[in-house]
Amino acid sequence: MNIESLSLKNFRNYREENISFFNGINVLAGANAQGKTNAAEAIFFLCTGYSPRANKDKLVILHGEESAVIEGVANSVYGKVSVKIEFFTNDKKNVYVNGIKVLRIGEIFGNIHSVFFNPQELKLVQESPEDRRRFMNVSLSQMSKAYFYALIKYNKILSQRNNLLKNPDLSLIKETLPIWDEQLCKEAGKIIAKRNEFLEKLSPVAESKQSGLTGGKETLKMKTESGYYGSEEDIAYALKEDLKTGLERDIRLGFTGIGPHRDDIKFILNGTDARVFGSQGQQRTVALSVKLAETEIFKEKFGEYPILILDDVLSELDKDRKKRLVSLTRSIQTVYTATDFSRTLFKGLDYRQISVESGKIKSVKDYLAK
Length: 370
Ligand SMILES: Nc1ncnc2c1ncn2[C@@H]1O[C@H](COP(=O)(O)OP(=O)(O)OP(=O)(O)O)[C@@H](O)[C@H]1O
Ligand SMILES: [Mg+2]
Fold this sequence. Notes:
Rossmann fold; 2 domains; binds adenosine-5'-triphosphate; binds magnesium ion
């Protein structure tokens, strides 16, 4: 899959701009605060309907304007697809796929695929389990709308369940809960089964990417700790039983103590927990390996790579890791952003340098390896 063009109107610091991408390496180049990440963010928006920065949508509208529009045209094995998003100051947004307005935001998934990485993705390794669940949710939602809708339903029932748990009327809780738990566990079964399948595939690939990025110096293992395995139905059944057993605890806590909203992933680097013992560079490499592995899972599922967006990654890795990264991504359309980079990094490869200045594309230059 590759993005051909991106148009931006009143989006962040872009008044009106069109960017054409090369089906290979693209470098959005420029000084700080010129609009490189903004353009990269727009691509990810078109794939997921969300910002990788997890801000409020209305913040993307150029200061002082009423609305913003972004549109991208991409090529996939199924043909051309266009996705357009209109943003409004009341935080509402409209999504159009091939010119037709979609009724549910979830319909944006699966049209254009991308994997986004920037230095903040270190959160994936460093921070809370919520960041790791977010990673799985974003990736799996792009691969399966059913997953996205199961997640929405699950979260809705979960919050109702949690409200009920705080109710002082114990008999009401005991009467109502079994009906809700039935539905809750059905959705949980779908979510956990998909996550298990995803991580099972992802783990060995991430391991080999880590080895590829570090010249074989570091071994990576990924472990999940959900404790539920088997088919959707098996998982739903087991969780329902555990919810029954844990009811007193849940009432005492006032919230649901088990389920997919508590899942986590552990990254074991050279035998120890990367979150606790890894250096910054190692943690960054782990997060990058996981994202690179994600591109392979997309490839396996859809027969083509997603668009890989690597924001600010070149400034953060050492020379050898950078070189290995470029070589690992040579068959994927990649959008890098960089303040400065050495041309020799792309030696032997074709690439397009798109220079950005104050929300404008200043120049576009193709460097061909010949
Ligand atoms: N809604 C908005 N309206 C106007 N300007 C905005 C809006 N949102 C962000 N900006 C501005 O866009 C500018 C460029 O941001 P961006 O993050 O794309 O920079 P960058 O080129 O990636 O820089 P860096 O190299 O520092 O990462 C920033 O100065 C920011 O203040
Ligand atoms: Mg940036």
